[in-house]
Amino acid sequence: MDLFRSRRVKKRGILLDEPVDGNDHCNGCDAACCRGFPSVELTHQEYAALERLGAARLQFLLDGHHYLVIENGCEFLIESRCSIYDHRPSICRRFTCREV
Ligand code: SF4
């Protein structure tokens, strides 16, 4: 039965030292990274920029950390693609994954 033959692909996240744009590795993916984490940490500048872009799920904690909550899927994800790609936060730019 096909249900039991399906193979769940495990992926390992990697945070690169430098941002990467137009990563071909992402083309066949359904944006698992934009759905698979509770939040993305932001700088204050990124927080302000996303606020200007209309982000509704921003968090500014009393300890000074800023976040974009992406639990159950980032609000900027449209048809499995980032709708603010040119303005996405640094962590999103540096993140990639590999199958393990
Ligand atoms: S900002 Fe873009 S790249 Fe970052 S989690 Fe949201 S949809 Fe994904």
Summary of the model, kept short:
This protein has 100 residues and is of the alpha+beta class. Helices cover 18% and strands 25% of the residues. The protein has one domain.
Write the layout of secondary structure elements.
Elements: H1 2-5, E1 11-15, E2 39-42, H2 44-52, E3 58-60, E4 66-69, E5 77-78, E6 81-82, H3 90-94, E7 95-99
Antiparallel strand pairs: 1-7, 2-4, 3-4, 5-6
This protein binds iron/sulfur cluster (SF4).
Residues 34, 40, 70, 74, 76-77, 82, 84, 88-89, 92 line the site of iron/sulfur cluster (SF4).
List its salient traits:
3 helices; alpha+beta; binds iron/sulfur cluster; 25% strand; two-stranded antiparallel ribbon; 100 residues; single chain
Q: Kindly estimate the percentage of residues that lie in beta strands according to DSSP.
A: 25-35%
What portion of residues is helical? Answer: 10-25%
Number of domains: 1
Estimate the global geometry from the Cα principal axes: globular
Supply the helix-strand structural class: alpha+beta
Mean residue pLDDT: 90
How many strands in all? Answer: 7
Number of helices: 3
Distance between the termini: 25 Å
Instruction: Say which molecules are bound, naming each kind only once.
Output: iron/sulfur cluster
Major sheet summary line: 3 strands, antiparallel
- Uncertain residue segments: none
- The H/E string reads HEEHEEEEHE
Radius of gyration (CA) equals: 15 Å
Query: In what order do the strands lie side by side in the largest sheet?
Result: 2-4-3
